[in-house]
Structure formats: C-alpha cells, structure tokens
Design a protein that fits this description.
single chain, 227 residues, alpha+beta, CRO Repressor, 4-stranded antiparallel beta sheet, 8 helices, transmembrane, cell membrane
C-alpha cells in the first residue's frame, strides 16, 4: 500500500513538474537568470518532497503550483517593464571597453582575472589585448567583441558574392530513407541508390546518416565504424 502511494505521488509530482516546465518555458541552464535558477531549484525540491510525503501531498503540490504561477507572472511583468526586467534578471556589466579592463566592474560582477581568462579561452581568445569589449551578461556568460584587426574576415569585407545558405536535407536517418526529404532535395530513389553504390554502400541500411547539401552533394556516415 505504501509503495502504491509512493508510486502515485511520484507520478503526480512528475506530471505537475512537466506542466509547470511547459508553462514557464524551456530554457537551458546557461540561459537562466538568477531568479529562474532559484525558482527551478525550489520547485524541484518541492517535487521531491511531494513524491515522498505520504501524509499530506496536497500541501507540497499547492506550493509547486504557487511557485510556478509566481514565476510566470514575474516573467510576464519583465516582458512589459524594463525596470522590472533589470530588477529580476539584472543588467549587463561592461568589463572591458576600448581594450581597457575595469577592475571595479570585475569586482561588481564577482569575477576574478583567472575566470575571465578561462572564459576568453573558451571563446577562442588567448590574449586579452585582442579584445575590444567584454560584457558580463545576465546569465553569467561573457560576450567578447574582438578588435577589428583580429576579427575574422567575412565575404563582405572582400566584396565577394555569396549564395544563400540552406539546411542540408537528411535523406537517410538510422538506415531508413526519408522519402519526403529526398523529394525536397530534388532527388529520387534511383539517384540515391547510385550515389550510395559509388560510395561503397550496398543498401541504405549500412548508412547511419546521409545528407544532401545545397549544391546537391551527398555526404554519408556509415552505420559501422571503420567503413
């Protein structure tokens, strides 16, 4: 009987948690504000309590719903008011401007130099002198704007005409031919079989993933390693 109660409470907590997550919106950890993070941890803790509280499961369930409603209301208010958004989510902090690092702004963001250097390396910058501006974002990440000299060249810089990029068409997924994708790519099954034969594949079942690019080129990844 106790096991049945635990099973029912666990399922109920998961259902409520899933509904609240869908209502509050799907965000990655890196996209969460401090307030979102706190709400998420609290709701998760209450959900665990709901799954194990066999005497009074109504109270933690009600608390979960209240926290979810509060989170949705604050999110709505934040979209309508810049002041509310700044209060709950915080404001970006400019750590570097014109290539100069601000110690006071670093202290305000509670970042030390080693943390900033690590974030710069992750972003591809191993020398801070290559950075024009660094901004500490509300979600805890740092955005870097390189100096013009170190910015990657673009086709626009060289006045080169470029074609519009489109997503490739995945015509084979896990050994199965995606007929709709193949048709959208402007190809037919006979063309696909011939291309696979030229690449050494006897049938689509040997292909884990195959994609057709904008230029009509087929790229294949074998089902078995080493092929």
């Amino acid at each position: 009987m106790v096991l049945l109660q635990i099973l029912i409470s666990s399922v109920v907590s998961l259902v409520i948690l899933f509904i609240l997550t869908k209502i509050m919106g799907n965000k990655q950890i890196s996209q969460l504000s401090m307030f979102d993070y706190i709400i998420g941890i609290t709701i998760g803790s209450i959900a665990a309590e709901l799954a194990t509280d066999l005497e009074d499961p109504v109270q933690p369930a009600t608390a979960m719903i209240i926290y979810g409603i509060v989170a949705v209301l604050i999110s709505y208010i934040s979209t309508k008011s810049n002041k509310a958004r700044a209060f709950f989510a915080g404001k970006p902090i400019i750590l570097m401007t014109n290539g100069r690092l601000s110690k006071a702004k670093m202290k305000k963001a509670r970042l030390d130099v080693n943390e900033l250097l690590a974030m710069a390396r992750i972003a591809g910058f191993y020398d801070l002198s290559q950075i024009e501006t660094a901004i500490f974002e509300q979600n805890g990440n740092v955005s870097f704007l390189p100096k013009s000299l170190y910015r990657p060249a673009t086709p626009d810089d060289m006045k080169l005409p470029v074609k519009k990029e489109t997503l490739p068409f995945n015509v084979i997924v896990d050994g199965k031919v995606m007929e709709r994708e193949l048709s959208l790519a402007g190809k037919d099954p006979q063309w696909l079989r011939e291309q696979l034969r030229q690449m050494g594949y006897k049938n689509p079942e040997e292909v884990f993933l195959a994609s057709v690019s904008q230029a009509g080129k087929l790229s294949c990844f074998a089902m078995k390693e080493g092929k």
